Amino acid sequence: MELTEFKNGVESQNFLAFCLSGKNYAFPILKVNEVIVLPEIIPMPKVPAFMKGVINLRGLIIPIIDLRLALNMDEVEYNKQTCVIIVKMIIDGSEKLVGFIVDCVSEVFEITASDIEAPPAYGVTNNNEFLKGIGKVKDKIIMLLDIDKILSQNISEALVICDLESDLAE
Question: What is the pLDDT of residue 12?
Fold first, then answer.
């Protein structure tokens, strides 16, 4: 949903907030399938560093992406609060489940359209196409991420490789 559609058609929306490097981010709750404790991840060969591998979640093979690395942040050691947000994404025209490793999940909150601002444009090109908007909740600023736009071409290709290799393993 584009920011303009959100402002024009919907009064408020629920988001799942999480932390990366001490900063607040959020996914639309309708895209979130579940949140799980960091499981054992099976590494995949020949994929980018942000693609940590796959997990078997109740019989489903789900690719796992370190969101810090996908957003060009520094890698950190995982701890007890590290978890995986399993989301529904559109990849190559079909809905897939993908897991994003985050530092911790903090809360579910409702945000009104009037409390969302468009992301700032930086010069001629906008490198924030994955940013749906900036939300103001209480005294916090929360970066509202567009799940379907987080994936660059490289991530999409890595997910297709994981999909093909998990099909071959069956």
Answer: 85
